[in-house]
Design goal:
Shape: elongated
Helix content: 25-40%
Structural class: alpha+beta
Largest sheet: 5 strands, mixed
Length: 573
């Protein structure tokens, strides 16, 4: 066997020369290079084949053909809720109608049948879409369930539905100016909806991460119960006083949180037809006005805080003040020397002008800036107007500014400034996001001293209780309300009109330790009845009274009937 094995063993190969080894190596290397080239060519042919196939596919499509969006249903928004968790805005699923024109047999009949369910379809535009022969066109977005059912019952070929996300506001108009609007693609375009997008939601949507399952509710400072009351009262005032607009805000004096704010005319965000009409803007933040005698709150506070004036100081109001072409008179002049409390409760223009004169022009302007009345307000809403003031202040500007003429600010800024006068002197930006008193005070600016704040609380209460005070119609039994009226003549054709007014009332309660500021406005009110006036005390003050009466218990403020206003006045001095 061994021999056989040995016999079968092949003969030894001859020893190769060095030259033959080199030739053999070159042959092998050349083979590998050829393989690489072929592989590279195959990859490039594959890539270009895919591109060519896509170009052929697109070339076969009819002009105007589009592809329906495949991820639209994922584009969600977080719920917006009030301070108690009540839903103010939420996403709901809705059907949108589309057509595949290439599959439509008779465009005329299709349009005729669809119009029986959707009479608002634009005939010519819709017909052109239906006969285009394209692969996909939108016909109507966000249908109601009944509309969808009725169209399905028609059994039209080439007609279908896609599920989309639609924003729904359970309260309708109740908080429309605060919540804002979204567009047809569920993107925020106004109010808090726009603010939410700016805080990162837009980026999440771009990444496809904005789904209903991973978005936490957006909690606000609003109390929808109080919001309903405020909106109801300003809507009633709009009708009762035949005004062009009205509004109000309830502000937490300790934190700067907005509990409720409304401006009418407004709109229904579920059907925002006319939402961008020029008269439907948010006058509380996006409108600037001469706030009239409510500004005397700041004039008096400025004089007291300067240290040059106290509650016992007296100012001569026996005769009008003439400066240049301006003559300053009192509406109901007393024709005598007035104490600081009398200047305040009688709303003396002359007395206020003399208070401002004590401080001086530059000091006056600085104080109004310090109180935030002349700078653009910081708040979450995008709709914020910039106050206006004279470019160069002269003495005449200071005198007229003392009683609220010659510069314009927003009603909300006036309420925020009043809160600083009531809460111990801390000016804080208003907010629609919850925060504690500690957080608010940490970001606040001390603008007046404690004594000035205490004196202003006394004057607010005095104005609502003393004979001749203009705040009597704002009082509510048990809640110790104080405040200041403002009746401002509006400029018509370059001149102040005695018959066209912008009225306001700013109030605080309870006056022993103010928790809330309530400010109301009525734009161009008419007398409620023939023979009546149309001043702020007759229309803006009752709005405040009604809001406090209806909402105080909801705000956690308990009425107290044991302590009289007179006793409270004595204790506050």
């Amino acid at each position: 066997m061994i021999k056989r094995l040995l016999a079968s063993k092949p003969a030894a190969a001859p020893v190769a020369s060095a030259g033959s080894i080199v030739v053999d190596a070159r042959r092998k290397a050349g083979g590998r290079t050829k393989n690489r080239v072929l592989m590279t060519m195959a990859i490039f042919f594959g890539i270009y084949g895919v591109i060519a196939g896509r170009l052929v596919y697109l070339g076969l499509q009819e002009p105007g053909a589009t592809v329906a969006p495949s991820v639209r249903g994922l584009a969600a928004r977080p719920d917006i809720v009030d301070r108690n968790g009540e839903v103010l805005a939420t996403d709901i699923k809705t059907a949108s109608l589309y057509a595949e024109p290439k599959n439509i047999i008779d465009p005329d009949e299709t349009l005729e049948l669809l119009s029986t369910v959707l009479p608002d379809l634009e005939p010519e535009q819709t017909y052109n879409k239906l006969k285009s022969g394209s692969g996909f066109v939108w016909l109507k977005r966000q249908l109601s369930p009944k509309q969808q059912a009725d169209i399905m019952a028609l059994g039209l070929p080439g007609i279908g539905f896609r599920t989309e996300t639609r924003r729904f506001y359970p309260g309708g108009e109740t908080a429309s100016h605060i919540l804002g609007l979204v567009n047809i693609d569920n993107q925020g375009i106004a109010g808090l909806e726009k603010y939410i997008d700016s805080q990162g939601l837009a980026d999440l949507r771009e990444l496809g991460l904005a789904t209903s399952g991973n978005l936490a509710p957006f909690r606000t400072t609003l109390d929808i119960r109080v919001q309903h009351i405020v909106r109801d009262e300003v809507k009633n005032a709009l009708d009762r006083y035949h005004a062009i607009a009205a509004g109000a805000v309830v502000l937490n004096a300790k934190t700067g949180e907005i509990v409720a704010m409304a401006s009418v005319p407004d709109f229904n965000p579920n059907n925002p037809v006319g939402a961008h009409d020029k008269d439907k803007f948010n006058r509380m933040t996006a409108g600037t006005f001469e706030m009239g005698s409510t500004i005397k709150s700041f004039t008096t506070a400025m004089a007291l805080d300067s240290g040059k004036v106290n509650l016992q100081s007296r100012f001569d109001a026996t005769r009008p003040i003439t400066i240049g072409r301006q003559t300053i008179r009192d509406f109901h002049g007393k024709g005598r020397v007035l104490t600081v409390p009398e200047v305040f409760i009688y709303s003396s223009n002359i007395g206020s002008a003399r208070e401002a004169d004590v401080v001086g022009v530059e000091g006056h302007r600085e104080f109004l800036h310090r109180m935030g009345l002349l700078d653009r307000m910081t708040i979450e809403l995008p709709e914020v107007a910039r106050p206006s003031e004279p470019k160069v202040w002269k003495k005449v500007h200071s005198i007229t500014a003392a009683f609220g003429h010659g510069f314009s600010t927003t009603p909300l800024q006036t309420a925020v400034g009043a809160a600083a006068l009531m809460n111990g002197g801390y000016l804080m930006n208003p907010t629609l996001l919850p925060r504690t008193e500690e957080q608010a005070k940490a970001g606040a600016t001390k603008v007046v001293n404690d004594k000035t704040s205490a004196d202003m609380r006394y004057l607010y209460l005095l104005n609502a209780t003393a004979p001749g005070g203009s705040g009597k119609r704002a009082t509510v039994p048990g809640y110790r309300v104080g405040g200041k009226t403002g009746t401002a003549e509006k400029v018509v054709n370059g001149r102040y009109s005695t018959n066209v007014r912008f009225n306001a009332f700013v109030a605080a309660f309870p006056m022993d330790d103010p928790q809330y500021i309530v400010l109301s406005i009525v734009d161009e009110p008419k007398p409620e009845k023939p023979g009546m006036g149309a001043t702020a005390g007759l229309n803006a003050a009752p709005i405040v009274s009604n809001i406090i009466r209806r909402s105080a218990s909801l705000l956690g403020v308990k009425p107290e009937f044991g302590q009289t206003n007179e006793a409270l006045l004595v204790s506050s001095q």
